[in-house]
Amino acid sequence: MSATIRLQPSGHEVICDSGDTVLSALEKAGYIMPNNCRAGACGECKTKVLDGAFDQGMVLDMALSQEDRANGYGLMCMAKPLTASLDIEFGTIDALQKLFPPREFVPFIVTDKVMRTPTMVEMQLRPLGENLRFWPGQYVMIGDERVGAPLRSYSIANAPRPDGELHLLITKVEGGRTSTWVHEKVSVGDQLLVHGPYGTFVGDPSVETPVLCLASGSGLAPILGLADGALRRGFTWGTTLVFSARTEADVFDQGLMAWWSRKHRTFRSIVTYTGAEPPATAEFTGRIPTMLGQIFPSLEKHSIFIAGNPDFVEACKAACLALGAKPDLVHVEGYFPHWPAEVPPAERLT
Ligand code: FES
After folding, report:
1. How many whole angstroms from 342 Cα to the centroid of ligand 1?
2. 293 and 325 in contact (C-beta within 8 Å)?
């Protein structure tokens, strides 16, 4: 027998098929709920159940204490409804996902640092203590005032992982004190203090449309985070990622793109070259605003995520709207030189 899961305070309803857990029912309906182990061991999916009964299954006490149980909490990765309906605390009044309050001075160790293009380095950071909880698409701030590197914002280029690792893509900016510090001074094994997460460039949890992602330069970072998160939760409406590169040297992560394309039939990755001498193998050339119509005669049904420098973002947004995209389905993240810490409004914080 199927059951109805009612999300509160929005009142949105999701059908939970017989045998499904609450977590899989939410994911099938396009909602994103934090989860790590999907086996009742980590506590990431702990949620308050306001009404109705459920079978909790076998879970670890350290993930759900007796006190949690007494207070009505359950682990949704293992919970199966026993009543015709189950009311759970989930998201905002608009059913948008709640965001985690930013933390300051969180210690991380640089576990790897690799040049991805001639001007962009990828830094991998692993937390020393508790994982920093974030949603795909959000960003953190790093810097070290003592050595003249002010705090600067960098998007997280991956979805949350059990080991808490963050991947940051950092382009060396002419005269940029923090990016120069990262490129020239920060080494593997160093400890960095991270602040965040910030920003609201997160995927709409209830999107039931194909997704188009447009990126240039390190704008690829939040897009990778969003795509990683969506593909991991089995998003099947189709995701196309178009990356704008001047030359072949600007293109990176092609191995990951190939793996995603083979593993997820609904994922497609495209590179368009804007420089005067595109590689002979280039399938697409020209700036995204001019070439997009060749691939998508209409964007009426798409949700669109655009990230890159502000001019790129504006031009792409205008092109998408001209191809029929609905303005409220176009989400943008423009990188400004001094990108401030954007703390989400209180009603969106957990
Ligand atoms: S996802 Fe780990 S306990 Fe549910």
Report:
1. 29
2. no
Q: From ligand 1's centre to the CA of 295, what distance in Å?
A: 40
User: 311 falls in which pLDDT band (50, 70, 90)?
Assistant: very high
CATH 3.40.1160.10 fits 103-198, yes or no: no
* Segment 317-327, tens digit of pLDDT: 999 999 999 99
The rounded Å distance from CA 101 to ligand 1 centre is 20
Question: 3-89, what's its fold?
Answer: Ubiquitin-like (UB roll) (3.10.20)
199 alpha carbon – ligand 1 mean position (Å): 25
Nearest to 275 by CA among 252, 247, 315, 253: 247
Burial level of 295, CB count in 10 A (0-12/13-18/19+)? middle
Query: pLDDT tens for residues 203-240?
Result: 776 677 899 999 998 899 999 999 988 888 777 889 99
Residue nearest to atom 3 of ligand 1 (CA): 40
In this structure, the residues whose C-beta lies within 6 A of any atom of ligand 1 are: 35-38, 40-45, 63, 75, 77
Which CATH entry fits the domain spanning 211-334: 3.40.50.80, 3.40.50.2300, 3.30.420.40, 3.40.50.1820? 3.40.50.80
